[in-house]
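A note from the maintainers: we've had questions about how concatenated examples are separated. There is no special marker in the raw files; a new sequence line simply starts the next protein. For clarity in this README we add a label.
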Amino acid sequence: MTPFFDPKPTPSGGLHAPATERNREPIVEVLRRVLPHQGLVLEIASGTGQHVAHFADCFPALRWQPSDIKAANLDSIRAWIAHHGRDNVDPPVFLDVAQQPWPVAHADAIVCINMIHIAPWSATEALVRGAARLLPKGGPLYLYGPFKRNGVHTAPSNQSFDERLRADDPQWGVRDLDDVQQLASAAGFAPAEIIAMPANNLSVVFRSDGTAP
């Protein structure tokens, strides 16, 4: 567990990350516009489960499939789902983007928040390829987090964050948006819609062009 992500247990049994409370409403405002009106949304790297529980409240017509790679997070997701009592969230599944096949064979949208900078670049490659296989034409892949633009950090705080990430693991780090867009284009996604978010983060929305095998 890294020092910049240290969620605490709650009485309900789920873990609590303060950043999730701060960013969830700005994210919801973007998701209201980009998600389909119905269907299955796969959340990759659901973390504590706070996001998916809140999203299920905000989007009751959608079915939500949380996932994560860590057993402790899967337990936390279950606790948050139980705490919210929603029936439009499926039980969380173990999903490592690098392992094929994924446990979900189709999704109408994919949401991935604050993952690609806390993982090797190979995980971003696997995420984009896997999303291209699952999504229908026009289906959105939504990414959220800090990004560099044209090789430059967008704020001193992001540069400091990047340095901390790389000190913790040399394979981690804030990604350059150009690199991510090139990767997505090669996998069969249309050019991204980019939305500025609070705290020097971005929402990046790719839509499948339906050409992935």
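[label: protein 2]
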Amino acid sequence: MALVDDLVTAVLLASAAFFVALAFGLLIRYRQLSQKITASSDLGRDLWQALEQRMKKQDERILDVMGRLEVIQSRVLAAPAPQPPASSPPVSTPAALPSPPQDVVTDVTPTVPPVQPHESQEESHTSQAPSNQVRFDETQLKVIGLLAENPKNTRQLTDAIGMSREHTARLMKALFEAGVVTRNDTTKPFVYQLTDEGRRHLPASPN
């Protein structure tokens, strides 16, 4: 009987030792898997952040190029058309008259070339004077009028003019490069304020 009890005790001790070793092995395996998962998560997070930064830089470059194209287009549209040089009217010189005989007296009136009126000359000079003012479209003038009230950020301007965020960003970039507005880069979204140059483009108030 004592031999059976010893055998049962040995089996129980062996089983307990086996389960303890199995639990210890599973715990080590769990820690290894947790470290691999954490390393994979950090690597994926770094890759995603790097990709997001590249996408943001690419968007900024695209907006910069489109803004420059709009500024160049506005300057081309504002450039005056070349005027043909004013042609002066031909001045006719009186032809030499034959000398009359000494005993015959004739009344000869020399022909006088026509003189152009003074008003036409002034009109020609006025028509040739080019205009150096920059022209803005209706949306840009609306933005200038909104900023004349108080400074506004990009979100407020987008809601006011009813356009997309990208279109508003390109429009404000063109106005900023033209010196019409100033931009506060320390806030998100940017806050724009009208300059003295921009106030010159405000429509004149009716008397």
